[in-house]
Amino acid sequence: MQFDANPDFDSRRSAVLGRGGMVATSQPLAVAAGLEVLRAGGNAADAAVATAAALNVTEPTSTGIGGDCFALYYDAKSKRVTALNGSGRAPQNLSLDLLDKQGFGGGIPTFHAHSVTVPGAAAGWCDTVEKLGRLDMAAVLAPAIRLAEEGFPVAPLTAYFWGRGAERQLSQAPNGGELMLDGRAPRSGEIFHNPGLAKTFRALAEGGKAAYYQGAIAEAIAQVVQQAGGVMTVDDLAGHQSEWPEPISTDYRGYRVWECPPNGQGLAALLGLNILEGYDVAGMDALGVERLHLMIEAMRLAFADTRWFAADPATNPAQLEALLDKGYAAQRRALIDPQRASVDQQHGSPTSSSDTVYLTVVDGDGNACSFINSNYQGFGTGIVPQGWGFTLQNRGQGFDLDPAHPNGLAPGKRPYHTIIPAMITHADSDDLFASYGVMGGFMQPQGHLQVAAALIDDGLDPQQALDRPRFCNEDGRAGGAVAIEEGVPAEVVDQLSAMGHTMKPTSGLARATFGRGQVILRDAESGVLWGGSDPRADGLAMSV
Fold it and tell me: In angstroms, how far is CA 418 from the centroid of its own chain?
């Protein structure tokens, strides 16, 4: 049975309400995996990893254990937010000199083996469960293992992107056939089995992260990367570790918005909110010219800073305190012309006074986990370690090849990262307000800003906030195209064009540009959870 995979995006859904715990993500079967772990006694951290693993099975077009992950965790007892950086590093033998010698000085090809950085997701999953969870990895991974072994029906939007990935990556990459059916992508409704991925998860369940980074899996990763022209070694994999940095945050109208620090781009969302705070956007039409112009310009300024300052803090730490200072935001805000689009923007000089899946879980005790996992561009490189059922990311595309740039490629360095989870607490009480995120490359901090404004400035519920049409600065730069979603009035788009914005009306499946978000709000007094799931994906929010 086949149905048209091209949605009209005209259906309506309400926010989902519950009390005993909630999971929201882009695949219903992954939501079910998270709920199963909550019912088994797991907390938000356990359920988040269970959901991430099930997403690897059901949506390998976006995510997997061959990629990286980041997380924010809210502990209801201490009211503290903890950050996990599960991103990997460049191989020790990969350098700018080597790229020049091999003719790649102008840039690494998108799906080349040189773009494979050490996958951090496996360690990130294990470390999250060990430090923050209640169950063991065997219990957490059991639903995903079952899905991979018994097979699952492929969802419509996933089938569409699987087809694109089969053409772009899998058909060209070593062992890419492990993620195809008879040399093609599975169609919507077809059952797909992934015994190799089940074997990977069983190894992780039995041997922990060492089974991935020091055993047969590591050997298979190094072997296939080298076979494809890369330089990753088993020593690169064995040396990987997750990190637990201090999260960064800013106060926005009485709410504290949390992000992971660089090398992620969560800084851009906070910078944008700091700039936006100087305007009474609640008094403006949410889809009107004035508000959209200010939001677009705020994010362009935020990206100008983030593209320079967001790099591996081990080698190029950013001046985070100065960058997030409200006085610095006022300086940047003064650069916005309320009548015209900017034509040139540079990063500031602060001084001290500094493709992807997203999921969110809140458990019955009020703990929350905002979790994001990615291969980067769809299937990443499409390269599959033989027999293990997952693709390797192409996160090395995030490096700059200018040696003077803070984000310049260097051996053992982590690149600029697009994937970012977010969280909001009440500034006065530290109670949880929302665990949320919007995936999708450079859309992510823009989505964080737009959804936060919808929740805080406009008082929308999670589903209403996610349903609202969005804009996306496609490359974040002044003068760059601005994708604008169908639903924004045509006269508004015309007025923005007249102000100097290069507008790109976007509809249908191209709405993937605007990411896919998930939101769970928690009422601090009643404990009631309000969940929403992006209509641009196949998923949903569901309560225990």
Answer: 7
> What are the backbone angles phi and psi of residue 48, rounded to the nearest 5°?
-65, -45
CA–CA dist 148, 132 (Å, integer): 26
**What integer pLDDT is reported at residue 171 of this predicted model?**
94
Q: Are 99 and 375 in contact (CB under 8 A)?
A: no
Neighbouring-strand partners of residue 520: 435, 531
Average pLDDT score over residue span 237-254:
98
Question: Which phi and psi (to 5°) does residue 44 adopt?
Answer: -60, -35
Cα-atom radius of gyration of the chain, to the nearest Å?
22
213 CB contacts (<8 Å, ≥6 apart)?
A: 122, 123, 237, 238, 240
Segment 335-345, tens digit of pLDDT: 999 999 987 66
Please provide the DSSP assignment of 176-213 as one string.
GGGGSBTTBPPPTT-EE--HHHHHHHHHHHHHTTHHHH
What is the C-alpha to C-alpha distance for residues 515 and 503, in angstroms, rounded to an integer? 18
Q: pLDDT per residue over 274-324, tens digit each?
A: 999 999 999 999 999 999 999 999 999 999 999 888 889 998 888 999 999
Candidates 121, 472, 156; CA nearest to 296 is 472
pLDDT tens track for 488-508: 999 999 999 999 999 999 998
Burial of 373 (0-12, 13-18, 19+ CB in 10 A): buried
Residues in the chain: 544
Chain mean position to CA 473: 17
- What is the distance between the alpha carbons of residues 166 and 179, in angstroms, rounded to a whole number? 8
| Residues with catalytic roles | 356
Ramachandran angles phi, psi of 38, nearest 5°: -60, -45
Rounded to an integer, the average pLDDT of 37-55 is 98
Distance from chain centroid for Cα 244: 18
User: How much is the mean pLDDT over the chain?
Assistant: 93
Structure tokens at 213: 């980074």
C-alpha closest to that of 421 among 394, 451, 454, 445: 445
Rounded Cα distance between 195 and 304, Å, is: 44
pTM of the model: 0.94
Element (H, E) at 369: strand 368-374
